[in-house]
Amino acid sequence: MAQFWKPGTEKPRLLEDEDGGVIFLSSSYSSSSSGYGYVSIEKQRQRLPVYKYRTAILYLVESHATTIVVGETGSGKTTQIPQFLKEAGWADGGRVIACTQPRRLAVQAVASRVAEEMGVKLGEEVGYTIRFEDISNPDLTRIKFLTDGVLLREMMDDPLLTKYSVIMVDEAHERSISTDIVLGLLKKIQKRRPELRLIISSATIEAKSMSNFFLSSKRRQALEGEELRPGLEPAILSVEGRGFNVQIHYVEDPVRDYVQAAVSTVLLINDKEPPGDILVFLTGQDDIDAAIKLLTEEARSNGKNSSGLIILPLYSGLTRAEQDLIFSPTPKGKRKVVISTNIAETSLTLEGIVYVVDSGFSKQRFYNPISDIENLVVAPISKASARQRAGRAGRLRPGKCYRLYTEEYFLNEMSIQGIPEIQRSNLVSCVIQLKALGIDNILGFDWLASPSPESMIRALEVLYSLGVLDDDAKLTSPVGFQVAEIPLVNKLILFHLRLLFILF
Ligand SMILES: Nc1ncnc2c1ncn2[C@@H]1O[C@H](COP(=O)(O)OP(=O)(O)OP(=O)(O)O)[C@@H](O)[C@H]1O
């Protein structure tokens, strides 16, 4: 069984947030007991740290082309900022406020929450669009949540995204390929649409490098010559404070088997801790299935204490109905245990969650352009991810996060940020998407982090050999354009095309 630092006793760490570290225990934001009782939605909104920054945020958005908002998990960035903007008139005259998320589950969840807070029907004033599902109304929707992949699709029909007045790229630290492409394209769009406002937000973003990215070289020169017009330099706003305390516990010694350690920790929490649901982060379906099996067996042999556990898996391959179970209220006297991949890592608020168990690992894509092989590998997470995971607790009441790695490892060995997906992936889909958007000079594209030239060349070679690109590296007609029309499944199609190519 994993031995935690002072197991059974309360000894929260009091570290300040240095170099992406975590740990929040500040009495000033210590939760009031109000988290437990009934509080009106308006009161809940006003209690969020971001509420105090309403005027500052609106001022910065008004006066700056780009505003970078950094604020703790649960401080209210995702649910509140779009509402502030709407209240301030940014959706008047038929304009729309967009807020992107890297993951579909988060899009649906935050859109529902914001519709509830505004007292409107989801799909009308507040809507969302994800792959295969558009719950928005072009005439009515004023705040729209969408994945960054869907925003990219929209750019194919409307390259300047003219209907949007403000686009908030949320959870920008995730650095998915789509987020990176979106950021590069939004920077381009800004030059053509000076009235467009961008907000880049996250709890764990490197604000300075993001700000430098949005300062084009021209603007940088102007800044050096002090001739910069106000508003062109991105504003950075740091939202202080968080909702509720999250105590962090580390194991004393490294664990050998994180699935077993996660299961033991769940049982330990169930035995020793007051009521509250548990969210466990593992890496993928195989781990999750193994953990559920083990937990069910151990809970059974553990006797009556564990009989009240409701164990639910969460990963992207589940049906919508299966995923929705995690949002259902936990019956009295029971304890829900959600065992998830990192799809629950950002943006989600699961009402009953008090305890988080973080294995310290996730499945990550790694691509080798020399061998042209892409693998999904179980790899250590970054401090940014660890912080996001801990942040799934402490949203409606104080919480605890049990990390299945040592504090020493966290402080000294864990990387601050993960490697952007663009630098560790096969770029075939990415190249098609950019070509379809009319970006011909892909190597010269304004990347936040450049992909390796080898990966880029390999992708161009593959697409040329499949007849998707011509001698000038432009999309061929009709094959190239047809493939580009279905970008979300084009990887799969290309895989089959390649197979056919190899076989015949
Ligand atoms: N579905 C929900 N049910 C109840 N409360 C919610 C819900 N969604 C959000 N909240 C409340 O609003 C708070 C702010 O959530 P929000 O997602 O806006 O924060 P955030 O700063 O964007 O966090 P993160 O960086 O983790 O995405 C939560 O901590 C919680 O108190």
UniProtKB/TrEMBL annotation:
Membrane-spanning ranges: none
UniProt domain Helicase ATP-binding: residue ranges: 58-223
SMART domains referenced in this protein's UniProt entry, alphabetically: DEXDc, HELICc
Domain Helicase C-terminal: 262-438
Top EC group: hydrolase
Keyword Iron-sulfur on entry: no
Catalytic activity as recorded in UniProt: ATP + H2O = ADP + phosphate + H(+)
Keywords, sorted A to Z: ATP-binding, Helicase, Hydrolase, Nucleotide-binding
EC number(s) reported in the record: 3.6.4.13
Isomerase among keywords: no
Name of the protein described by the UniProt record: RNA helicase
Source organism per UniProt: Gossypium mustelinum (Cotton)
